[in-house]
Amino acid sequence: METVRGGIKPGHLVVSGVFGGICAGAALFSIIMVPIPGIPGGSGFWIPAGLYFALTLWFGFWGALAGHIGTFIGMGPFFGFTFQVWADGALGDFLAPLINLAIFRATRADPELKTGRDMGIWLISVIISTCLAAMWIHFVNYSFGTITFDLWKWGVIAYTIGDTLAVWIIGTLLLRSATKYIKTFPYYVKGLFS
Amino acid sequence: MSQRSMFVHISKDSPLNLLHPLPKLASILMINTVALIIEAPIPFLILIILVMFAFRIAKVPLMRIWRLIVALVIVSQAVIISYVFTSRIPGKIIYEFPWGTYVSDMTLLFSLSMIMRYSTMLLGSTLILCTTSDRDITYGISSLKLPYSLAFIFTLAFRSTSIFIDDFAKVRDAMILRGTNFYKGSIVSRARSYAKLLIPLIFIALRRVVEYTYAVEAKGFTITGKRTYLHRYDVKPRDIAISILLASAALFTFILKYWFGILSFPGWPLNMFFGR
Predict the structure, then answer these.
(1) Which of the ends of chain B has fewer CB neighbours closer than 10 A, N or C?
(2) Mean of all residue pLDDT scores within chain B
(3) Which class for B207: exposed (0-12), middle (13-18), buried (19 or more C-beta within 10 A)?
């Protein structure tokens, strides 16, 4: 297997591409099943969130990139491939799992979530990262004139609750059931890129 | 004769098909930037009419526009609700809410402007992407001197989406045959059922990652190495001229808004009418 620059392999790019497609499909289902009127491409239960939070803990930057590309492709057919859709949903969905990963790396928590400490860090880090992403996303919506500043805080609260629940339900299940196997996978990322 | 773009089949002699991917990407950037700069409703209206006209010239089926109506209605109602109940747009106050926000004579006009901003971005991006194939995006990214890896990931993600949807249907049917009911129980229990569906999908995807990696490595794919391209997309002087023209249009819009104030709300010609 060829190893190039800092241990980044072609497989890491393939991880982003393949899982980007899965996140896009999951985003399509989320928008169709639980749409939020008014938020471009928004959904009350964002299935890809659970996916890319877990993917980022497994594949680092490449998992977050999968979420970013997947969200953009998934939201695009419904609400256009516009700057706004890219900057709010797609960029927000890139930042949130990376913040979560940073907390995990800083606290040396294990994504297998076997101990109470790891589980506690997971639950809290999801709230923090989702809330920060929600602030960014609604700031973008405010900048584009879709919402007013008074509505910003309510948007942040609603988004944080909705996304946190999705990540807790889906992400926890994925991390607890698949991490042990994925740690043996050649493209498992221990740092940020490799 | 027609050819397949990312969304539709369009006529092969569409003028936009003759362009290099670079000016196409520049068009998407320009239309979004210009829409973000403008605040005035009348210039927005003119811009939307121009974009609609461009649909005709580019021979893009207008059916594509009608599909976007739902998105526009969803965004419009939210923008109007948002501005009516939670905004303070200066003007003649018509109604003041107990929580401090008010509806002025400018509130509806401003929210209409914001709806038109979204419509412009939506129509403009759709027009360009209707005449762009995923291969154009790959070559467009390469012409912008961005890493080829990015184009590779993007193309792979596009292709993987339909494969995932097929896998999803197969796994869901298998789970239903084994007794899973996705339509029964509370929202949380249904969400958990769907989450369980993702586990086999993740493992199928991991197997695919290994297979695809072997395939691309067998074909000599490297992350940083020099590569050759099957198709040639030569940048012609016409493409460069169009790209420069588009960049100038964004700059011109910026000057019109911040120097002359023509494109600031309420903008030309309403500023004469409202005396602003």
Answers:
(1) N
(2) 83
(3) exposed
